[in-house]
Amino acid sequence: MKPVHEASEHFTFRLATTDDAAIITHHRRAMFADMGHAAEVETLNQMAGAFEGWVRRKLEQGLYIGFFMENAEGQVVAGAGCWIMEWPPHLLDASAERAYILNVYTEPEHRGRGLAKQLMQSVLDFCEARHLGVITLHASQFGRPLYEQLGFAQTNEMRLVRPT
Q1: Planar angle of CA 113, 152, 104, nearest 5 degrees
Q2: Are 132 and 97 in contact (CB under 8 A)?
Q3: Of 3, 24, 63, 127, which has the fewest beta carbons less than 10 angstroms from its beta carbon?
Q4: How many CB atoms lie within 10 A of CB 100?
Q5: 7 DSSP 8-state letter
Q6: What's the helix, strand, coil split of the chain in %, to 5?
Q7: Where are the domains of the chain?
Q8: Fold observed for domain 12-17+62-149
Q9: What is the pTM of this model?
Q10: Sorting pLDDT into bands at 50, 70 and 90, what band is 126?
């Protein structure tokens, strides 16, 4: 799959493989650390340990599609993920699938170059090609302006978290 919006001359787009589960996990851990959880090392480590196996399985099943930008040296410097979720048909969309965007992350030294926007556009193009009509995500304060620019709107979701 090629993105509609090609990367700049210094960065190359590619899709993730199952071998990239550790990179996706690194992005997820770093994303939460950047969102104010850096001091929660044990919690981040537990989450990362559990997440890497989960994302590897979802990649193998074709239910997690990873989108990457690499620099000229072939290092992944930004990524985004799209989890295809089974969902009951709904008034918003009669499809039995929804897309959930997660793990949108750019390494600090590569921020401000539009990489996240290019990745998000590639994810949205993928969703359109797959006929996924409902696309959700949870936005950090850093990502909210980009997501709003792309047409995402705040919803009324509620949450209950119980100890496990």
Answers
A1: 45
A2: yes
A3: 63
A4: 17
A5: P
A6: 40, 20, 40
A7: 12-17+62-149
A8: Aminopeptidase (3.40.630)
A9: 0.90
A10: very high
